[in-house]
Amino acid sequence: MPNHYHFLVYLRNETLSDAMKSLSLSYTKAINKRFNRSGVLFQGRFQSIHVSQTDYLVNL
């Protein structure tokens, strides 16, 4: 899957939007610096689902 990534995240205090914004910004800055480029790396907003059942969590 070279065009996207998956995370399983447990949040306590911050919202998912804030966490993803921070992660995406940090990663983009690092890649742009490493490859001497500029601009965005990812298209569109992240998608999320709430996992509340243990068996579904195991499948993830």
Descriptive report:
This protein is an all-alpha fold. 42% of the residues lie in helices and 0% in strands. The protein contains two helices and no strands. The longest helix is centred in the middle third of the chain and has 19 residues. It is elongated and about 45 Å long.
Number of helices, where a helix is a run of at least 4 consecutive DSSP H or I residues: 2
Mean pLDDT across every amino acid position: 83
Query: What percent of the residues sit in helical stretches (DSSP H or I)?
Result: 40-55%
* Shape annotation: elongated
Beta-strand residue fraction: under 5%
Which spans have pLDDT < 50 for at least 5 consecutive residues? none
Round the Cα radius of gyration to an integer and report it.
14 Å
Distance between the termini: 15 Å
Q: Can I get a quick summary?
A:
The protein is mainly alpha-helical.
Short descriptors:
single chain; 60 residues; mainly alpha
Task: Lay out the secondary structure.
Layout: H1 16-34, H2 54-59
